[in-house]
Design goal:
- The protein has 277 residues and is an alpha/beta fold.
- The chain has a single domain, classed as TIM Barrel, CATH 3.20.20.150.
- 41% of the residues lie in helices and 17% in strands.
- It is built from 9 helices and 10 strands.
- An 8-stranded parallel barrel has the order 1-2-3-4-6-8-9-10, surrounded by 5 helices. Strands 5-7 form a two-stranded antiparallel sheet.
- The longest helix is centred in the middle third of the chain and has 22 residues, at 117-138.
- The radius of gyration is 18 Å and the shape is globular.
Length: 277
């Protein structure tokens, strides 16, 4: 079975944007007997080494481990803000070394303010190249993250092009099942009866063999198993691509199911799917 991690930010419905999410996710991961947790930069109080070392010790003492740390960005900001993102990424790279975290997750940017897709894509490529050039000397992996909400890369073709055009051994890829174009979870007008469009599954199929990690989104807009994304189909695609890397479970509630109920349910659901022949 692929190692499973919980995204600590999934617990913000209960704990807000604080490191309480990290401790709660660590407790849950230990109780569920899974590999560990992933975190986001905005959950950290600060980047002081003493605090980071203490936090890492607290998590690891539960018998689990960290996966990656994500860099949160604004998809409404123009590419002029990329310079600030690069500074933040470099600072985060230096910080996670104190926690024994070997990778950070970085998204593309929004096609906003009259920018063209090609102009934005070029700026994003330069951003990743710059961050990777810094990360390779520190020994940190940079996970390219496909993300919709009007940003790039948000299709399978865009992801493959970005992976091809950024020249660095530090670059890797995390496939987000809910953030390709065609995902109802990436739309502000989503309703419980929505389902993903075929283009989402086409992008997943295109990128599955390139993924080092898969972020599995759960929404639970309706009762029962996840309805917006066809996980039996997604898991078959991942198996056909011989994917055997970590699974990161991310909960973005669109109904009234609390994260404390949703995350264990998602772990059980995915575990059963992957164990089926």
């Amino acid at each position: 079975m692929n190692p499973i991690y919980l995204q600590a930010l999934s617990l913000q419905d209960i704990y807000g944007n604080s490191d309480d999410c990290i401790h709660a996710a660590a407790d849950m991961a230990a109780e569920l007997g899974i590999a560990g947790i992933d975190i986001e930069d905005r959950l950290l109080k600060n980047y002081e080494p003493e605090y980071l070392l203490e936090l890492a010790h607290s998590v690891e003492s539960r018998g689990i481990q960290f996966g990656y740390c994500g860099l949160i960005i604004s998809f409404q900001a123009p590419v002029a803000y990329i310079a600030d993102e690069i500074v933040r990424a470099k600072t985060l790279i230096d910080a996670v070394t104190h926690m024994g975290i070997g990778a950070i997750r970085v998204s593309g940017n929004g096609v906003v303010g009259g920018q063209t897709l090609e102009f934005t894509f070029d700026a994003v490529r330069t951003k990743f190249q710059t961050i990777c050039d810094y990360a390779v000397d520190v020994g940190i992996t940079i996970f390219l993250h496909n993300h919709n909400h009007g940003s790039t890369p948000s299709t399978g073709a865009q992801v493959l092009r970005m992976l091809d055009e950024v020249d660095s051994p530090a670059l890797s890829y995390v496939l987000d099942t809910g953030q390709f174009q065609g995902s109802p979870g990436a739309s502000s007008d989503s309703v419980p009866s929505n389902s993903a469009l075929p283009e989402l599954y086409e992008s997943i199929k295109m990128c599955a063999s390139h993924a080092a990690i898969v972020r599995t989104k759960f929404y639970f807009a309706e009762s029962g198993d996840e309805q917006w994304l066809d996980y039996p189909r997604i898991v078959r695609t991942l198996k056909n691509a011989d994917f055997n890397g970590p699974i990161s479970i991310v909960y973005e509630p669109r109904g009234d199911v609390l994260s404390t109920e949703a995350l264990p349910a998602a772990v059980e659901y995915l575990t059963n799917l992957f164990e089926q022949s």
